[in-house]
Amino acid sequence: MMFRTRLLLIFAVAVAAAVGSVELVVSGRARQAFENMEARRVNAIVAQFDKEFRRRGDEIVRTVEGIAASTTAAEIAISPDPEKYSLEGGALAATNRLDLLELVAGDGAIVSSAQWPARFSYKEEWLPSEPDWPSRPAFLKREELPDAVTLALVAVRTAAVGDMKLYVAGGRVLDSEFIASLVPPQGMRVLLYRNLAPAFAPAELIDASGPIASATLLRPLVEQVEKQGSDGLRTIGRGASAETFHALPLKGRENDVLGVLLIGSTRRDLVELEASMLRTAVVVAVSGILMAIVLSWWATARITRPVQRLAESAGRVAAGDWGATVEVASKDEIGQLARAFNRMTHELVEQRERLVQAERVAAWRELARRLAHELKNPLFPLQITVENMQRARDKFPEQFDEVFREGTSTLLAELSNLKQIIGRFSDFAKMPAPEIQPVNFNELVTETMRLFEAQLSKARISASVRPDPKLPLVHADAEQMTRVLRNLVLNAVDAMPQGGTLTVRTIAMGAGVRLEVSDTGQGLTPEECERLFTPYYTTKTHGTGLGLAIVQSVVSDHKGRIAVESEKGKGTTFRIDLG
Amino acid sequence: MAAGAATRPHYGGTLRVEMHQAPPSPEVFGVPQGFVLTSWEAGRRAVFAADENAPGGRPFLDAVEIQMARSLRDQSVDLELGKADIVELSPAELRRQMAGRKVWSSSPVRLMALAFGPRIADARVREALALAVDRTAIHSVLLQKQGEISGALLPQWLTGYAFLFGAAADVARAQSLVAGLSPADRTLSLAAEDAANRGIADRIQLNARDAHLMVSVVPSSGIADVRLVEARIAFADAPHALASVAVAFGLPEPPAARSPEEQYAAERALLDGFRVIPLFHLPDVYGAGPRVQGGPVISPLGEWRFDSLWVEDRP
């Protein structure tokens, strides 16, 4: 991936991440604000419920106190024949607009019951057990009716005349009408579950208009509050139709949960707000990304142009143009990098020149040393021969002719040797440019090896030629490549003075070829391998050390590669890759 | 002067009587002594005129006009408003009667009882219901202590042995009787034939619940497993009275008894199996408006006695 593309991606991701983060933070804050607002609204509803609950309780207390203080209650309390008043409860309840009213004798026996007239004479044991009814506020009570059970807000007061006592227990049913008196804010609703049955009863979950549909959805919350006796919270449904319910237990006189007040708050506003924020965030993110692409295209162009120039210059350096430089247009890190690059190429050029000069000096020294060595060998017999001829003419004139004849013969031979040495040096210096043409390397190898058959046989070397039948034609100078192969074969012959096996094979390498020449000779050390292609370097006692240098020169002129692999005592393999 | 005049009977006037029953024919209703039937509108109205040739002499009243099928409450209202002269009084109305108003009651001549239908085949259920009913509370409160608590078909005043039939509630025993029964077997419906007795039916339902019986009170027009019914004791001699009661409740005809012991045994035999559970023996109770003078309007056996009444319109 291009650096510029990568930068573009980074910019785009950064913008998207920034917008996403902002959206998350804003969304979280909005949710928090919504929750806080909802909590306040729930508290307001609960306060309203408490207030209404107290108001109604106080109203019932006042009404019941009025009944207890009436002469009728006093008459019943002192009457030796309370059966006469079995219908009074209903009449008093109707007069005082109470849903429930029981007149109970001091021993707990019901004198009259408005809500269940047939219950006269039954005992209400809980009434005499409470010693201080006058100070008790109204409380929730589970009230059994002839055909149902209901939840009621009840107050109890006593009418006492002397030792005689009459309990007046009156109240009102907590039903839809009570729920209707609570006015929740928009988006909220109030439900009441009357815990009247042993198990959850959907019909007992009511709102202002009666039992609600889908009451079973709230069953887990109601049961949780009933079980724990503390507030509960649960969200019902999903998406915009979701509704969060806060549930509060309504406890009776003995702290038992007789009802559950549920305050439902729709999540529609929050969901719509979040959706709106999400839409805005998406629009902002897309706009931001597009803007980021445009800006980053411009910015990355500014950033990557010098880098691109640097890369191009580095490529030119790699291609051999060591004098390549980069224009420095800024003082930032890229500018510093460009200046460092220019300094580096300048140093490279200088070092290369110094190295070339040093190598040139070293080459001349090596050449001089080699020349001196090569020339010294034939010069010494020349000097001896000339001195013998001088000594023979001075001291043994009779033998001079013979000595002269032998001496001139030796001189001519050594001069021929000198001439040959000088010719080889001349050949290396005059290495011609290759004449490229399609070459069949299999044929080249076969024909060259045929020339060496006698020499190899004499040296007790068995030759193995393995041409690759799929070898393609390669553009090369056939004569120079023949010279390369000849040099490698001669090198191998020299490496196997005791005889051995010479293997030459060709291998197809895609569009190119590989030429391998292996011997089973004495092998080379790693150090010898490193210096093997240095001109005038040789591991042999004879030779100019130019053979492998010529091989490398030819291969290099053909844009090929040569490598050597050798193990001491086991042999050496030369590999040439062309094409 | 007016008070003196009020004490002296005089002839003339029409007596307006209301009742909640609606006898199907004049024969069932019975023609009052000293009067003759002049008009009969079945289920609604009957008019009797004074018989000029009555054996005991002409009654004071010229006529008696009887409105039938009037609810007890309507009767009470009509009496208050002066639209009726003589009405039946329910126990509840009896409580509200103003001081000084004439009230006549007969001997306990009506038997109130629970009569089981054929569906309740298990005698334990019937006996449990008999033991569950708290007759004392009903008698004290709903009946305002009128009549008598009874476990017998015939009243004490007629036989002298009615007290031998147990009438006390025993909820624990009732519970043990139905303990092994399934809820379906313990469920039964109850209908009060007379709507005025609905309160008693409700109380019986409540008592039954204490005994683990599930009783539902249904309208009298519907089918019920057990009915709260009344039967009139129409005879002053026990054998005939027992026979008529047995017929009224669909019980087998009792054998003719020649002694009180046989009479007791016959009645005991009728009650074995708890097909009928006697609850109370009740009197007929009537109240009279201020126009009505003389009386009483009924005999101890609950027969009409209009011939002893006269009416007096006060200025």
Mean pLDDT of chain B: 90
CATH topology of the largest domain in chain B: Dipeptide-binding Protein, domain 3
Number of discrete helical segments of chain A: 14
* Backbone shape of chain B: elongated
Low-confidence stretches of chain B: 1-5
Keyword list:
heterodimer, A: 579 residues, alpha+beta, Beta-Lactamase, 5 domains, 6-stranded antiparallel sheet, 5-stranded antiparallel sheet, 18 strands, B: 315 residues, D-Maltodextrin-Binding Protein, domain 2, Dipeptide-binding Protein, domain 3, 2 domains, 7-stranded mixed sheet, 4-stranded mixed sheet, 11 helices, disordered N terminus
Write structural notes for this entry.
Chain A is an alpha+beta fold and about 575 residues long. Chain A folds into 5 domains: about 5-10 and about 270-315, no CATH class; about 70-170, Beta-Lactamase (2-Layer Sandwich), CATH 3.30.450; about 175-265, PAS domain (Beta-Lactamase, 2-Layer Sandwich), CATH 3.30.450; about 320-430, Orthogonal Bundle (Helix Hairpins), CATH 1.10.287; about 435-579, Heat Shock Protein 90. Helix content of chain A is about 50%, strand content about 20%. Chain A is built from 14 helices and 18 strands. Chain A has a 6-stranded antiparallel sheet, sandwiched between helices. A 5-stranded antiparallel sheet of chain A has the order 2-1-5-4-3. In chain A, a hairpin with a 2-residue loop joins strand 4 (about 150-160) and strand 5 (about 165-175). In chain A, helix 1 runs antiparallel to helix 7, helix 10 packs across helix 12 (about 480-495) and helix 12 packs antiparallel against helix 14. Chain A is rod-shaped, with a radius of gyration of 59 Å. Chain A starts with a helix and ends with a strand. The longest helix of chain B has 13 residues, at about 200-210. Chain B is about 30% helix and about 25% strand. Chain B has 2 domains: about 1-100 and about 290-310, D-Maltodextrin-Binding Protein, domain 2; about 110-280, Dipeptide-binding Protein, domain 3. With about 325 residues, chain B is α+β, with helices and mostly antiparallel strands. Chain B contains 11 helices and 13 strands. Chain B starts with a helix and ends with a strand. In chain B, a hairpin with a 3-residue loop joins strand 2 and strand 3 (about 45-50). In chain B, about 40% of the residues are buried. The interface of A and B includes residues 117 and 121 of A.
